[in-house]
Design a protein that fits this description.
mainly beta
Length: 220
Amino acid sequence: MATVGIKGLRMALINPDTMQVIAGADDGFSETGIFDARGRVAKGISEANITGIAPAITKVWGNDQLQDQSVGKSQPSVATNFNDLPYEILEKALGEESDGKGGFLDNASGVLPHIAMDIISSDLAGNPVHYCFYDGNMTHADKNLQTSNENQTRATDALTYSPLAGSNGHVMKTFYAADKGFTDDALIAEIFPGAKVSGATTPTTSGSGAGDTGDAGKTK
């Protein structure tokens, strides 16, 4: 099925023991727990490249013939690029520790935060298509700083999301809003359990908000 563009993504910190969203602006991404990067939030996302969806196939030969095929499990990875991800969200996603004075220590613990993610595109008719992941870790790509000249040179936020299996044993689930049984509430209940969606608000119309942005609880 053809898809068109990228409409944004939603992500939330989760507790890996309970698989519940961590809500609240202090410990989570927002009061609802969900960071909703749609509309003009974070100045948009230019890329969400999902690779490794197909499982690896190992051919089994015997008696000089191809006898069987061993099918492995998919190992997806997502390369994302935010045009201007708020630093509060970035540092929490990477698990870097704040000193309370504007500084963040690099993550030397070897333990990364756990994040659930919903990447949103659309079909040719404009109906949202959601590529969802129950759990995963996020890492930052190298930062290549270059001089500006008559044109501004920006170093955007290139992040790699490495999914993990959810409590159901699956890594990824795709939702189609065109399906008559689809509701966004059901998606949130499965991908972002424990999110305080009743407090969600409409996406900001300008700037890169790090707060409780997005219409996370509305049907799309």
